[in-house]
Amino acid sequence: MPDVFKLRVIRTGDAECQIFAESLAGKAESEGPLPVDDLAHRSRPFHKEMSRAAATRRAEFIDDGVHQRMLAAPRHATLPDDDAVAKAEAHRTDLRITQEVGTSIFEFLFRPDIDRLFRKSMEMSFEAGEALPIRLLVEQIPQLTEVPWEALYDRKTQGFLSLSRQTPFIRAVRRDPVRLSRKRKPQLRILGMVSRPSDMVNFSLSPIDAEGEQVEMRRAIKELEDQNKVKLCWTVSGRQDDLEEAVIRPPIPWNIFHFIGHGGFDCDVGQGYLLIQEEDGTKAAVLYSETLRNILIGPNGPQLVVLNSCKGAFASSGDLFSSTASDLAIGGVPAVVAMQFVVSDTMAKAFSRKFYECITKGDSIGTAMAITRAYLKMRMFPEWVAPVLFLGGDDTPIFY
C-alpha cells in the first residue's frame, strides 16, 4: 500500500500546539510554541508581494474609456518585456522571498522528531518506488488559514516539497475521508463555466482572457477528446440558472467542474464567493460558497472542482473553512483546486493546460499539482505557489 505522510496540527493552549505525524515508518509527535504572530507576519506580506508580482505579467490598465488601475499594484511594472536580465533578477527576488517563508513553515511543522520520521519515510518510499504525499490537517486554528503551506522549503535538500512528484502536498479538511470513485470511467466528463460580468457597483473588473484559457484546455485534452475518452462542455452562460441546469439534471454525471472568472472573500458575510452574471443582464452577481456547494454536491455532482479564479482559496482568519474551496471540500466535494491569491491570465492559462495534460494521462490530482507547479516555476511565474489542493481523502487518479 502506498505511504502517506500525515501531519496534524492542533492547539493545546493560547500559544501552544501539538503536531502529530504518522506514516508506515511509524509515528512521532511534538509539543511546543504556536508562532501564530510570526507565521501571520510572514504570510500576509507574502500574499501581497506575490499578487503584485503576478500583476506585472499582464497589462496594468483596463481600457473602458477611462484608464483604471487593477487591484494589484505592479511591483516590476517598469521592466520592459525584452529585459531578460531585469526579469531574471526579479525572479530571483521572488524566489528568495518564497524560500524565506517556506523555511519558516518547514521549521514549524518538521520539528526534530517529526523531521527524522519524515526522512525515514522518504527513504522507504524511494526504495519502494512510490511517492510520499504529504497530507496536512490543521484543526481549529483559524489564524493559520493564510499560511502558504505550499511554499514548504527543505534547506537540507534545498527544494520546495510541493514541486516534487515524490512529495505531492495536500491540504486535508477532515479526518474522515471522502473517497474518490475508483470506478473505471470510459469517458472523463468536464463541465466548464465562464463568467465575465461587465462590472459591479463601485468596482471595475479587470478583463479575463477566457477564450485563451479555453483554447489551452482544448489543447491539453485534444488527443483524448478525438478518441472520445474526454468530453469538455461549457454552460450556456455565466448565470446561476444555467449552472444549476447543467449540474443538477445532466444525462450523465460530470467528473470535473472548471470555473473561469473572478472570485473573492466577503469579510462581512464570512464566506468566499465567485462573481457570476446576474440573471437578467451582464452585471456581476455574487455566488457565495454555501450556495455553490448546494449546487455541486449531489448525485450528479463532480468529484473535482477547479476554481481558476483570484483568491478562490483565501479564508478569513476568523473561520477555518470560510474560503470557497475549503467550504466545498468540507461539505463533501472529494477534491478542490483553487488559487490562494491573485494570479495573472498568463499563469491561469498555463496552469489549465499543464494540469489537464497530467489529469488526462492518469496522474493523481496531487501528482498533477506537483508537476504543474514545477512547470509554472520553470516558466518564472512568481505565483507558482498560488494553486492549492484541498482533498477530503487519499490522493488517487480521477481518470483511469
Descriptive overview:
The chain is an alpha/beta fold and 400 residues long. The chain is 34% helix and 24% strand. It has helices spanning 36-55, 84-109, 112-128, 210-226, 240-248, 289-296, 324-331, 345-360, 365-378, and strands at residues 5-11, 16-23, 26-33, 61-62, 68-69, 134-139, 153-154, 159-160, 169-172, 188-194, 199-200, 203-204, 230-234, 256-261, 263-266, 271-277, 284-288, 304-309, 335-339, 387-391. An 11-stranded mixed β-sheet has the order 3-2-1-6-9-20-19-18-14-10-13, sandwiched between helices. It has a 3-stranded antiparallel β-sheet with strand order 15-16-17.
Compact description:
With 400 residues, the protein is of the alpha/beta class. The chain has helices spanning 36-55, 84-109, 112-128, 210-226, 240-248, 289-296, 324-331, 345-360, 365-378; strands spanning 5-11, 16-23, 26-33, 61-62, 68-69, 134-139, 153-154, 159-160, 169-172, 188-194, 199-200, 203-204, 230-234, 256-261, 263-266, 271-277, 284-288, 304-309, 335-339, 387-391.
Q: Which word captures the global form?
A: globular
- Measured on Cα atoms, how large is the radius of gyration? 20 Å
Continuous helix count? 9
Structural class by secondary-structure content:
alpha/beta
The count of strands amounts to: 20
Order of strands across the main sheet = 3-2-1-6-9-20-19-18-14-10-13
Main beta sheet: strand number and arrangement?
Answer: 11 strands, mixed
Poorly predicted runs are 57-79
Q: Helix proportion of residues, in percent?
A: 25-40%
